[in-house]
Every structure is written in C-alpha cells, then in structure tokens.
Amino acid sequence: MYNSKITGLGYYVPDNVVTNDDLSKIMDTNDAWIQERTGIKERRHVIKGEDTTTSMGVKAAKIAIERAGIDKDDIDFIVFATLSPDYYFPGPGVLVQRDLGIKTVGALDVRNQCSGFVYAISVADQYIKTGMYKNILVIGSELHSYGLDMTTRGRAVSVIFGDGAGAAILSRAESQDEGILSTHLHSEGQHAEELSLIAPGMGKRWVSDIIADNDPNDESYFPYMNGQFVFKNAVVRFSEVIMEGLGKNGLQPNDIDLLVPHQANLRISQFIQNKFGLKDDQVFNNIMSYGNTTAASIPIALTEAWESGKVNSGDLVVLAAFGSGFTWGSVIIRW
C-alpha cells in the first residue's frame, strides 16, 4: 500500500469582480443584507465568451502541474469535479485531457456539487494507494454565473455563488507518515430536492416539451435552496465527519493545524470553528472574496492558504464539505 500526497496546487478566478453594491443595482438587496447572512463581500463572474468551466480548470491545472515539478505526460489519470459542465455530455474531464495535450489517460467526472472536490480527492487517493496510478490531476471548477436568476426573485441564491477553479496533483508519498491519512464520505438522498437544480433533466420532462413550453415563470431552471434547512444539516454533518476523520487517526480537534472548510457560508464556518474551539488562524476562509464556488471552493482556499504560508510540512490539515445531495465528507492530511 502507498500513501498519496498533494504535491502541487493551483487556482484561477476570473478578473471580473462583482461586489454586493453591483448586485444591488440589478436586484432588491444591499451589502449589509448579504454580508450579515453569508459573509460575502464580492465574487467573480466570468466575462461571457472568455472562460468556461473547462478552461478555468485547465488554467488552474497548469499551475498545479508546474508546482508539482512534473510534466503533463507524467499524469496517469484525471478526476474533474463540477456541477456546471460545459456540455450535458461529455464531461469536462476529457476536455481537460484534450486541451492540456495529455496522453490518452483515463478521465473521470464527479458530480457531487459542494463536496465534489472531497469526493474527487478520495477517489484519486484510492487509486494511488492501490498502486494503480502514480500522479493524478484533480480539478474542481464551477461556472455558476450563467445559470443564476439575477433578479430579486432569485436573490437568496444568486448573491451566494461565484465562478472559479482549483486544482491539485496527488502523487505517491515515500512515507506512510505523510500525505492523506484517510477520507470519509456520506450521503443522504432523502433531502435531495432541498438544494437542487431540477431542470434541464431527463427525469420529468421530454426536452421537446421543455422547448415547446418556453415558460418564463418556470423556476426549475434556476438553483433552489431551502437555506435554513441546509444550514441546520450542514453544521451537524460538518461536525460529525470531521470528528469521524480525527477519530479514525487517533486525533483530537486541538491537533488540527488548519481546517479548510467548503466555503458555503461564513456563518457555517464560524459555527464549526467555535464548536471545535479553534482559533482564527486555524481556520481558513475566503468566501468574502469569492462567494461559494462549490466544487472549486476547497482547492481555491487550500491553494491560497498554502501560498500565504499557512500550510507547512508536518501540519495536520483537515478538509471538510457539505452540500447538495445531501453529500458530505472529510479528508485528513499530514502535510
């Protein structure tokens, strides 16, 4: 059995900054209302035609590959997590393989929304642990802005989400004492519709019927979130899955050097921080700058934390996420 470790990180966000004041010009909202409920000050939206989910993932991947000190042809496998693929099919994994000019390796798409990167890391970790692959490119990338209801009707959801991508290279570790110690994954599908985007989908309506109806009041094309219900479930599941990971490795909350939670809502992160008695420098948050970038949020935050010197050799780093599905998970890393 091998261990896997993160050897390279990178992220990319569009240059276009959208502030809360910008949103107040197109919907009935304001900076104080958004910050009080989410902690978000601004987010990034792509400029139409300049970026896609795949192109942002490619830009983040190039940085991660360079920092890992490997060539693109050293990559054995690709795992791409997103809820906003360029196409209904094929998924963006193969598009990354094409656009980076990587040899004909396998490419896997993960559709686990906010916990997508944690799931993707878990998959890559298992492939390396079994000895099947040596270097795996893992990407989380999201383009939300094209699919948001940017009116007062949709403000409860639309003010939260932003665009961006993050990437990591997982490689074989030389020591069993470093790298990913364990991953923990869960789901609870009975609450699937509480955080969802119902259409377009093949489960309820023919595509031809959707086109024929062309109903401007059909809200099923926009994301729906039962905010209070999601919040209540998130704080419980975050706590459980973090403790599960720590317990698996004989650790306690005070052993954590850095917690990087999915950037869903600053109030959720603060709740978890207080519950575990962690100091401000033990939790990394950047939702105030980027909003919720779903599968991209953890790799963007982890990269920023590493770039700012908050992640060092020997540190215990915990990644945790909760989101649509419901799905949730954690990753315990000895850096």
UniProtKB/TrEMBL annotation:
Its main location: cytoplasm. Catalyzes the condensation reaction of fatty acid synthesis by the addition to an acyl acceptor of two carbons from malonyl-ACP. Catalyzes the first condensation reaction which initiates fatty acid synthesis and may therefore play a role in governing the total rate of fatty acid production. Possesses both acetoacetyl-ACP synthase and acetyl transacylase activities. Its substrate specificity determines the biosynthesis of branched-chain and/or straight-chain of fatty acids. InterPro entries: ACP_syn_III_C, ACP_syn_III_N, FabH, Thiolase-like. Homodimer. It catalyses: malonyl-[ACP] + acetyl-CoA + H(+) = 3-oxobutanoyl-[ACP] + CO2 + CoA. The keyword Lipid metabolism applies. Keywords: Acyltransferase, Cytoplasm, Fatty acid biosynthesis, Fatty acid metabolism, Lipid biosynthesis, Lipid metabolism, Multifunctional enzyme, Transferase. This is Beta-ketoacyl-[acyl-carrier-protein] synthase III. Residues 108-189 form the Beta-ketoacyl-[acyl-carrier-protein] synthase III N-terminal domain. Belongs to the thiolase-like superfamily. FabH family. The lineage of its organism: Bacteria, Pseudomonadati, Bacteroidota, Flavobacteriia, Flavobacteriales. Residues 247-335 form the Beta-ketoacyl-[acyl-carrier-protein] synthase III C-terminal domain. It comes from Maribacter litopenaei. Pathway: Lipid metabolism; fatty acid biosynthesis.
